[in-house]
Amino acid sequence: MVSIPAQPYNYELLNLPNVALIIIDMQRDFLEPGGFGAALGNDVSRLRSIVPVLQKLLQTFRQLHLPIIYTIEGHQSDLSDCPPTKINRGNCKLKIGDIGPLGRILVLGEPGNAIIPELAPLPGEIIINKPGKGAFYKTNLQDKLSEQKITHLIFTGVTTEVCVQTTMREANDRGFECLLIENATESYFPEFKQATIEMIHSQGGIVGWTTKAENLLQALQ
Ligand code: TIU
């Protein structure tokens, strides 16, 4: 058993192969100027700070042959999986499906929709394309996790209070033991990131646990 110092109390990995690293939406659309995040009016530069920590986590999970699952928020090119409410939300000049500097905004397969090159998935690593903020909504994520008997999920990626928190709540309701890595997730709004961390481990871990990457990496050595 591996015991990881965490809030609100230690996070126990009973059976190591049953844990997966989940990397949420580390896409050019959210991290680079000209993508979806910028179209919504955000300063996208702050999200890049977590890349080195994510690279360390990826390296360790790859060395230990533990499963890695990436998600990508994006829509079919005909936008048939995108509710009109999502397209119109924010009253932005550039909307989902419009052509921007990185290709069509938030459309699968477009250059801007790709995972940033520093974190590019390797062959065999799972990528879940998702139309919503939560990674379980209209995807086969639950089947993929059941196939590999995964019970424990390590959450990273962007943005903390939108896609990461939504997915973590979905996973918690489905019976997964969820751990958020505080320095491997980021938000356009630092105060929302902090609030999310506090929400997760309040009430005795109502949605799960949080810790720093160093604690996880040390425990896995
Ligand atoms: N806008 C924002 O903060 N996030 C998203 O739209 N998607 C994700 O969090 N990936």
Automatic annotation (TrEMBL):
GO terms for molecular function: hydrolase activity. Keywords: Hydrolase. Residues 20-207 form the Isochorismatase-like domain. This is Cysteine hydrolase family protein. It comes from Floridaenema fluviatile BLCC-F154. Pfam families: Isochorismatase. PANTHER family: FAMILY HYDROLASE, PUTATIVE (AFU_ORTHOLOGUE AFUA_2G08700)-RELATED, PEROXYUREIDOACRYLATE/UREIDOACRYLATE AMIDOHYDROLASE-RELATED. Coiled coil: none annotated.
